[in-house]
Design goal:
Order of helices and strands: HEEHEEEEH
Number of strands: 6
Oligomer: single chain
Largest sheet: 6 strands, antiparallel
Number of domains: 1
Shape: elongated
Helix content: 25-40%
Radius of gyration: 17 Å
Length: 138
């Protein structure tokens, strides 16, 4: 295991082994199922190199009286919004399944930005990442 205290939370990391990917996906799904059931229609957890991305999808709120001159039909809008992810967070792996770096997506900058967990630390568990992002999104 890596010593995360010596790691820069905004760079570096290690490629996530397949065994860790499987465990992390199950941990995140279980935590969301227990604590946030019904707050989303589906969750997407994907891995790339040293990162774990977690996105949620939800049923859109749409007005009944749809404007006739709008650029898309009501049905097209609903379908597009159903398939538009809510970027919950990105985790960075440093070799320790209990200590991940976290970044939240900035819609203003169109990029993930390194963040701290509520306890003021740059490293935490996937479950704490879900709990932290749930305040904003779920």
């Amino acid at each position: 295991m890596s010593n995360t205290r010596q790691q820069d939370p905004d760079s570096g990391g290690e490629e996530i082994p397949d065994s860790v990917k499987s465990r992390m996906k199950q941990r995140i799904l279980k935590y969301v199922e227990i604590n946030f059931a019904g707050r989303y229609t589906r969750l997407d957890i994907r891995f790339h190199d040293k990162f774990c991305y977690v996105d949620a999808y939800d049923e859109p709120d749409v007005i009944e009286d749809w404007p006739a001159n709008f650029s898309e039909t009501r049905e097209e809008h609903i379908e597009r919004m159903r398939n538009t992810p809510i970027y919950l967070f990105r985790l960075r792996y440093f070799g320790d399944e209990e200590q991940w770096g976290i970044a939240f997506y900035s819609y203003a900058n169109n990029a993930y930005e390194t963040s701290m967990f509520p306890d003021g630390k740059f490293f935490g568990t996937p479950e704490l990442a879900v709990k932290t992002s749930a305040g904003f999104h779920l």
